[in-house]
Every structure is written in structure tokens, then in C-alpha cells.
Structure to design on (571 residues):
């Protein structure tokens, strides 16, 4: 079964390698959209808006989404997709609105205009009850962990299970301890969040996001604040859990394959983990596509960003 | 500013709806918040009511009444002053300043740590589970503490009478002559609503805090100021209405 999951990843890559699709897709794409209101075309010159097909339906899709906070325009006509059953990355310089994107997906923020679709349903249009149900599809790791300060680690991780399932104490204990051990916090189960380091809180938040085995998992910078070894291990853990969940979903013939979305600055983990990469800058996608094509992109901005060099279009301002 | 008032009205509406619509998961949080606020407030309230009752209406009014040789009317004056105004005000000020700020700081810190967002994503409605219990607890507590403030306020008045070497008989006589049940329930209803105002303002400010630890500090400051303004405005309207609808309480009986 595990091989099956692998070959699935392989499939994606095979479709990529099939032809010189990169060039043709760019050529076939609709006419280049104009810059957002109030911005010069010059600012968006690196945005090729090329989207290389993933060959999958979209679990989440942003359609011309605009969002401003006062005078700061964060999303400026964003079109972005997270393909189903893949590990997607959202990459982008700090402060471009990656966390804001994530909050739009779960209905914590609403777009000023445009739409956000989850499995084809519009999140901003959902009545409260439906939004409530929809959120159960999601597991979310917040950028700072967002553990509940009044509960110890165990209770934090058990919280979603107690909230949404009828599972007994023994079963909850087993699931929670398995997840805590996976992230190396088995021994800290009774500690309170304020006694933990930032990286430990992050890992606990990771465990909490996983316990319900949701359809869509969003990780907001799971690796920031972790040491390099743990970052690498976390990347592997993400892949392994994704594989397991794909198997499980296939066995149970779930309607949707599990979709992961990882927001990160860490190019190394992007290279290791990502099936699909979205590069976000100035409120729009610069270029998006399966990892292989993105890593071979000709776009100077993408090249600079994915290799983490100081030379290139991206500067401090 | 106007937008904020509108948002607080909205929050009040949603809190009321959410409080009556099942399910009711907020029982334990209600008890917890009630006891928490009571522990915080009972002592500051005790000190301020006695001090207030003794100094402001007690000593000052006594000095004034002595001029007319009318110190025996201090009891009657206390009905007007203490039941109708002083006790409710001291009560509200202490609750807003002590319990209200604690609520804002607590919710604000949780907002900053994104705990509130996390709760919402995990299917827990923050209004039902956090605002409603605080709202109900503060209403009940402020109402009860009004009576508590009254008792110690009057105690301050007695102290003032004694200090002025006046007999206590006339104090009580004029006190009970003037005290009407309208006064008492009016006072309790008023303070219960003060509690509602404090709770809404403080929850709102906490839940909308932004900008790190500094932002929480700012939210606490603003919460106190807005709560006080709200209480003053509401008190004015309430007293006017009560006096207009119950003209009998305006006559002072010898
Ligand atoms: N609730 C909010 N109110 C006002 N401004 C906000 C809010 N949330 C985000 N912003 C602004 O939106 C912009 C994007 O923020 P966001 O947190 O999404 O960036 P990011 O891409 O996640 O950055 P990082 O990689 O540093 O986490 C920032 O300028 C931030 O100040
Ligand atoms: Mg972020």
C-alpha cells in the first residue's frame, strides 16, 4: 500500500515530465491580468502568473480574492489552488499574507471581494451552521502554536477529540499519546504551555492539528523555531503521516483525499516535502505548479527565492 | 468610535441570543468566573464602600447638616445618596476596575496568542463559551454586590453619625421612612445592568485586542474608560426614567 502512495507521487511527476508542458502552459494561458488598482505594472513584472497543472481537483481554491486591513492591501486579486491529495507549499517573503490566506480557508477572515472555495463550496457564503461543519474538515497548526494556556499538553491535544468525537477515555489516551510521541513530547504530557519552549509549543500544536485526521491540514510555519535536525525530522513526519492518511482514505473510500498545506520559509524542507508549490508575493501568485517544474523554473524571482540567494529581484523593501 | 458602539450592541444581541438558545455548555465557566470575580472584588469593595459612605455622604453631609442643626436627617439623606447613587457607583467602579480589567486582560492575551481563533476552528463558539458566562456572572455579581455595598455604605454613615456624637435613633428613623422598596429594587436592577455593560465592554475589548502585549494593555485601558462612560450615560437615563415613572420616591419624608 505504501508503494501505492509513492507511485501516486510518482504519477504527478510523470505527468510533469511527460512533455515540454511548462512552455506550452505559459503560452496557452489567458491574457496577462492587469496589476491591482493603485499598483504599477512594473511592480508585478516578475509575476508570470503561470500555473502548471497538477492533474488533480482543487481542495481549496482562491478566486480573485482581495483583502485589505485599513491601508495595507494584503491579498490583491489572489488566484491560488491547493490540489487534493498532495502536499502543497505556500512560499513567500515574510509579511506577504500567507497566514492571512490560511485564515481565509477556515472562515476566520472574510475576503473583501472574490471567493474562497473549499471542496467547491464557497466559505464566505456559508451560513454559520455549515461553516461549523466545514471546519471539522480542517486541522490547523497556528504560527505560534495557539495552545490553550489553561490546559496541560495532554488536554490540549485531546481537546478536538473530546469536542468532536464520542471516543472513550482509553481510546483518546492512546491516540493522544501516539501523536505526542511522534513529535517527541510524550514525556511532557502534564506540562503547561507556558513551561515549554516555542519549538515545543509548535510541535504540540502540530499534534493537536493531527488528532482528528482531517481532510485538509494546514501548517503555518511548522518549522520556524525548530533546530535543523528537528526541522528535517518534521518534514519526514509530515510526509509519513500524509502517506498513512492517503492509504487510510483509500481503504475507507473517503470522498476526498487528504490535502496538506505547509507554509514555510525553509527552502530545504520545501524541496524535500512539497508535491506542489505556490509562490506568493504582493498579494498574488507569482507562479505555481508541481514541485519539479517549479524548481526548474526560468523565472528569476522564483529562482532567487527557491535558492535563497540575496542577488535577484527580491530586495529588503 | 461609533462603529465600536455598534459592534458592542451587536455583541450584546448575539450574547443574549446565544445565552438562551440551547445547548448550554457554559455552566462551569459561569461558576468559575463568578467565584473568580468575587474573590477579586470583595475586599476592594468593602474598603471603598465604607470609606465612601463614611467620608462623602457621611462626614461631608454631616458637616453640612450640622449647620442647619439637622444632623438627624442623615439617615434620610443616605437613602437618596447611598442606595440610589453611591452604592451602585462604587459597586460598578470596583467591578469594572478590578473584575472587568481582569476579563479584558485574559481574553486579550488569549486573542493575541490566537487561542480564540484556535477555539473557533475547533468548533467552540467563543461567544457562547466565553462571553455568555462572563456576562451572566458579572450581572449577578454586580447586582449582589450592590446590596453588599449598600450595607457597608450605610455602616459608613452610622460611623459618621457616631463620630459626630449624634444619636443613631433618628438616623434609622429617617432612613426607613424614606426607604421604599422601589429604591432597593431600582438600585439592584440598575447595578445588574451595570454589570451587563461592564461585561460586554470588557469582553469586546479583550476579544478585539491586537498588536501584541502592548495591545492588550491598550485594550484594558480603553475598556475601563468606555465602561465608565457607558455606566454614567446609562445611569443618567435610568435615574431619569425611574424618577419619572415613580414620582412618589421624589418626596422626602420627615
Ligand atoms: N488581523 C489583522 N489586522 C490587521 N492587519 C493584519 C491582520 N492580520 C494580518 N495583517 C497584516 O497583513 C500582512 C500579512 O500578514 P501575514 O501574517 O499573513 O504575513 P505572513 O505571510 O504570514 O508573514 P510571516 O511569514 O512573517 O508569518 C501583514 O502586513 C500584517 O500586518
Ligand atoms: Mg505568517
Amino acid at each position: 500500500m505504501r508503494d501505492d502512495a509513492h507511485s501516486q507521487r510518482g504519477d504527478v511527476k510523470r505527468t510533469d515530465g511527460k512533455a515540454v508542458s511548462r512552455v506550452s502552459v505559459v503560452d496557452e494561458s489567458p491574457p496577462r491580468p492587469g496589476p491591482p488598482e493603485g499598483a504599477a505594472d512594473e511592480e508585478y513584472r516578475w509575476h508570470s502568473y503561470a500555473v502548471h497543472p497538477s492533474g488533480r481537483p482543487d481542495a481549496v481554491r482562491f478566486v480573485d480574492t482581495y483583502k485589505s486591513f485599513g491601508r495595507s492591501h494584503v491579498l490583491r486579486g489572489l488566484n491560488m489552488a491547493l490540489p487534493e491529495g498532495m502536499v502543497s507549499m505556500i512560499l513567500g517573503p515574510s509579511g506577504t499574507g500567507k497566514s492571512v490566506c490560511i485564515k481565509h480557508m477556515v472562515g476566520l477572515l472574510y475576503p473583501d471581494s472574490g471567493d474562497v472555495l473549499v471542496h467547491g463550496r464557497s466559505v464566505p457564503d456559508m451560513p454559520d451552521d455549515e461553516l461549523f461543519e466545514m471546519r471539522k474538515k480542517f486541522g490547523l497548526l497556528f504560527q505560534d502554536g495557539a495552545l490553550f494556556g489553561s490546559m496541560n499538553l495532554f488536554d490540549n491535544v485531546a481537546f478536538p477529540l473530546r469536542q468532536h468525537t464520542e471516543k472513550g477515555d482509553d481510546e483518546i489516551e492512546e491516540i493522544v499519546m501516539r501523536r505526542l510521541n511522534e513529535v517527541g513530547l510524550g514525556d511532557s504530557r502534564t506540562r503547561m504551555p507556558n513551561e515549554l519552549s516555542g519549538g515545543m509549543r509548535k510541535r504540540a500544536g502540530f499534534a493537536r492539528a493531527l488528532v482528528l485526521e482531517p481532510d485538509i491540514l494546514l501548517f503555518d510555519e511548522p518549522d520556524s523555531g525548530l533546530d535543523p535536525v528537528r526541522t528535517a525530522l518534521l518534514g519526514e513526519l509530515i510526509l509519513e503521516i500524509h502517506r498513512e492518511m492517503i492509504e487510510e482514505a483509500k481503504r475507507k473510500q473517503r470522498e476526498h483525499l487528504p490535502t496538506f498545506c505547509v507554509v514555510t520559509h525553509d527552502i530545504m524542507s520545501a524541496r524535500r516535502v512539497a508535491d506542489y508549490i505556490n509562490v506568493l508575493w504582493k498579494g498574488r501568485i507569482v507562479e505555481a505548479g508541481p514541485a519539479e517544474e517549479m524548481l526548474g523554473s526560468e523565472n528569476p524571482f522564483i529562482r532567487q527565492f527557491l535558492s535563497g540567494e540575496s542577488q535577484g529581484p527580491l530586495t529588503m523593501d | 468610535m461609533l462603529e465600536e458602539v455598534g459592534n458592542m450592541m451587536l455583541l450584546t444581541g448575539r450574547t443574549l441570543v446565544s445565552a438562551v438558545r440551547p445547548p448550554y455548555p457554559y455552566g462551569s465557566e459561569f461558576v468559575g468566573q463568578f467565584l473568580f470575580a468575587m474573590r477579586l472584588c470583595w475586599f476592594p469593595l468593602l474598603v471603598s464602600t465604607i470609606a465612601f459612605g463614611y467620608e462623602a455622604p457621611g462626614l461631608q453631609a454631616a458637616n453640612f447638616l450640622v449647620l442647619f442643626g439637622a444632623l438627624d436627617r442623615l439617615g434620610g439623606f443616605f437613602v437618596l445618596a447611598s442606595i440610589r447613587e453611591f452604592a451602585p457607583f462604587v459597586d460598578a467602579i470596583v467591578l469594572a476596575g478590578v473584575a472587568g480589567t481582569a476579563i479584558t486582560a485574559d481574553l486579550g492575551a488569549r486573542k493575541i496568542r490566537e487561542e480564540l481563533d484556535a477555539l473557533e476552528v475547533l468548533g467552540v463558539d467563543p461567544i457562547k463559551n466565553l462571553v455568555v458566562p462572563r456576562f451572566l456572572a458579572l450581572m449577578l455579581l454586580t447586582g449582589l454586590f450592590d446590596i453588599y455595598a449598600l450595607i457597608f455604605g450605610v455602616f459608613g454613615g452610622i460611623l459618621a453619625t457616631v463620630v459626630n456624637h449624634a444619636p443613631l435613633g433618628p438616623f434609622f428613623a429617617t432612613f426607613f421612612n424614606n426607604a421604599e422598596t422601589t429604591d432597593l429594587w431600582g438600585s439592584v436592577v440598575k447595578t445588574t445592568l451595570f454589570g451587563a455593560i461592564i461585561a460586554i465592554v470588557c469582553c469586546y475589548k479583550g476579544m478585539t485586542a491586537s498588536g501584541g502585549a502592548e495591545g492588550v494593555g491598550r485594550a484594558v485601558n480603553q475598556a475601563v474608560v468606555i465602561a465608565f462612560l457607558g455606566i454614567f450615560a446609562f445611569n443618567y437615563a435610568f435615574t431619569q426614567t425611574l424618577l419619572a415613572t415613580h414620582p412618589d420616591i421624589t418626596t422626602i419624608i420627615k
